[in-house]
Amino acid sequence: MPDDQVAALQIENLAFRYRPGEAEVVRVGSLVVGAGEAVLLTGASGRGKSTLLQLVAGLLEPSEGVVRVRGQDIHELRGAKRDTFRGRQIGMIFQTFNLLTGFSASENVMAAMHFAGGTPAGEQRGRAVDTLSKLGLDRVDAPVEELSVGQQQRVAVARAVVNRPALVLADEPTASLDPPRADEAMDLIRRACAEAGAALVCTSHDPRMADRFERRVGLDELAGAAV
Hints:
Blueprint: E1 9-16, E2 26-33, E3 38-42, H1 49-56, E4 64-69, E5 72-73, H2 79-89, E6 90-93, H3 105-116, H4 121-134, H5 149-161, E7 167-171, H6 179-196, E8 199-204, E9 215-218
Parallel strand pairs: 3-8, 3-9, 6-7, 7-8
Antiparallel strand pairs: 1-2, 1-4, 4-5
């Protein structure tokens, strides 16, 4: 990574415990993810991968340590400032999609722009439709509950990248899919992040995913080493 390019993600001496005195659920000595880089975070189920992503997104408070996204310590921000920063700089793809039922595909994507701010209201629909179209979805006005699983995943990916964030976090996005669909979904996510210029941190315990990433980091490796 060039010296003048700010990393998408920097973690230093991060630890998380549910209560003081309890065992650490997460420990990361150091992790740097460069702008536009794709990293697969591996580890068995229940080892803290999802918790780490929640710490990176500012959804959980660390017991100690620093998380910087595009140079900003996200845990220094409070309330609406953190929410706005997250909306603009971090996209999230959940295993269960977490789409807004009763709303159309385009409205789900527009919601991400609304909460992040920065995109004029009159431009939001056009941008949402364009993002969905690039991901191969033309049923932009269909309620998301009427879409197939593959179409819903396209909506979830579009929502994650529409604000052109610095970082996309994907938590076990292929866990519930059969191998052909898992390959298709990962291709979709990688392509969307590359087009948006976003770094990707993806968690998975599926050994098949390892060959799809140039950089793979095991959760156990992070405890003491700089990675």
